[in-house]
């Protein structure tokens, strides 16, 4: 009951702060539209059409390219701030526009189906299929299949017998409804098989093999587009099962198989209520997970996050949002129990029609799932626990300036996390020999960062953006840097849409500076640089070609994780059919 009492006091305090603003509204008969300051316009020219990178390819492969909307040359994104005030005199009755069809690509016609397949180096193959059918009563059934696989490459020149095959399959099917309410039901699952070949270069063993399967059912519900109240409710029930087989002698004289099972229930909801003085935002999310449970929803880890904030437009140049959030976490395996109350704050100031300043403090909870953790990190220790992360302080201050077709952004911030994940290289003594394992840990972290970004629309419809980040991430309890966290990060994007919506050519790049895999900083990981080139070309409105060149960097810069070099120059090409 204590978190609820604290939340009640917090909401009461937030409400008392707004009484003075409400008292100033004397004429409720006059309807005044809110002022659309530059902060309300979110389309600022960052046309970040991005294919997935291959930085996770050695672990579980990469997803096929997503559906990419083709941008006509005469429809360039609006990148300047909106400078005209939107105050109108007298009452005005407006209705929300009806949203377009769920899948709208290309020239704007609803896409009923899409199939694309590609083949590449190392016998890399991919297939992506999507089907939907809309009915006049608002129902729309749909289904999707995504597959990618490879015979694998040889990561170590002196160990030609070690290969890295993988097969990844994801399927989903659902039914969406659009009418007096928006609702939908979706079911899906996955089957993944891949090798954990890191750190076996110096060991006389084959790479351990990991197999994962899972299924989920998801339900969502929300108001229609015509309602004044905005929000939604989402429920997700899922199960993930992983099995890792280690060769003989790796940990014990006989071959061993370790299993991990997670069953979980996730729920979240948002609600925005328009008031006289502003808009009240309410949100909540909860998570319940059982690790290797014997019962259906046996709980080992549960978390809860609830918040409330009031957005107040204070004139044409100032927007204020103030409130609070409660974060609760309990994890039985790690004997963790914590409750935090943090303020919520957002201030946005428009200095000129082409510049703005902002400050925001947004605490939040991240509910990591087992399948997400094992997809993103080469965790070799099977005692992994998908414990949520808490960010009690997430403070950022920044500015944006517009010069015609150029947008400049600078920001700096601080994040305090009493519980946050990190991957670390550890040692285990097996008999008289050492084995290196990548383990998952949770600890208090502090992050300081500064960031700069430039985005522009160049002549010929060429879009470009460059972002650089400097950061320091440390573990206060041991006063050490967090493993695998670099001081410098960078992202690059160049995208060129072909005339007449014929296709798209895109160059993406990401950089991570020098990192260390362990807390003692003895295992050095060289800087990581990933440069990829992708292209699509429509031969006809229904038939097109796709191609990509991945990992266009020297071998020294192709290892994001210790012991996991990525393949060099991965070429793939295929065909796309849609109608």
Number of separate structural domains: 1
Percent in helix: under 10%
CATH architecture: Beta Barrel
Give the overall shape: globular
CATH superfamily: TonB-dependent receptor, beta-barrel domain
Distance between the termini: 55 Å
The description of the largest β-sheet is: 22 strands, antiparallel, barrel
User: Mean pLDDT score, rounded?
Assistant: 83
Strand fraction: over 45%
Under CATH at level 1, the class stands as Mainly Beta
> How many helix segments?
4
Structural class, please?
mainly beta
> Which ranges are low-confidence, i.e. pLDDT below 50, for 5 or more consecutive residues?
1-92, 101-109
Number of strands: 27
From the 3D structure, determine the CATH topology. Answer: Maltoporin, Chain A
Using the CA coordinates, give the radius of gyration. 26 Å
SSE inventory with pairings:
Elements: H1 2-17, H2 19-23, H3 57-60, E1 113-120, E2 124-132, E3 139-150, E4 166-178, E5 181-195, E6 209-223, E7 230-246, E8 256-274, E9 279-291, E10 301-313, E11 318-331, E12 336-352, E13 355-361, E14 364-366, H4 370-376, E15 389-391, E16 393-403, E17 406-430, E18 433-458, E19 462-475, E20 480-481, E21 488-497, E22 503-512, E23 515-516, E24 524-525, E25 528-538, E26 543-550, E27 570-578
Antiparallel strand pairs: 1-2, 1-27, 2-3, 3-4, 4-5, 5-6, 6-7, 7-8, 8-9, 9-10, 10-11, 11-12, 12-13, 13-16, 14-15, 16-17, 17-18, 18-19, 19-20, 19-21, 21-22, 22-25, 23-24, 25-26, 26-27
